[in-house]
Amino acid sequence: MSIEIPELPDATILLVEVGSTAHGTGLEGGEDHDELGVVVESREEVLGLDPVGRPTVMQRTQPDGVRSGPGDIDRTLHSLRRFVRLAASGNPSILMALWAPVEYATNEGRELQSLGNAFVGRHVIPRYRGYMQSQAMRLLGLRGGGHGRRGGGGREQLIEAHGYDTKYAMHCGVDAVEGSAVADGRVAAAHPRRAGGVASSSAPRGSVL
To answer: How many Cβ atoms are within 10 Å of 94's Cβ, its own excluded?
Structure first.
């Protein structure tokens, strides 16, 4: 049974499509819809005594422990302060949101996306390298597969069909292409659709690595 996701907060300035479908790397007919939003904190949240302010909120059309399927939505809402802080640190998931397909944007949201290149530099390379290495270690079984703990665990259907989790391989390719483009200031071109075929291919794991 699906859960209805609440309306966006009034202070939302940006909502973008992220994840496999945004990259063009999803499995045809088998993907949920991932969204990332940015919300401006209220005066009370910024100036109050709470050191956290507005917390990051995750909203899903499936309850925790149930895997999202086609038509389901997974939405993450960050405060503007947290979003900017993560972007400045070179967080790959946050950086790519600055060039992701827009689902909703105010003038402030569009202005935020226009600042994308201000966050780009070679300082992001270790972050992308770290993401890529962690995915490779999970692909090789050298690290526990943390994917999908909120959504029901691993991707056993891919392992059964191909002998390994091809989505980990796809994520390695995405991180490599995006990291290279970001470091060279070509972020607008970092749309690695060519990595998507790995997720549904029968390529041997060794040839992917």
So the answer is: 22
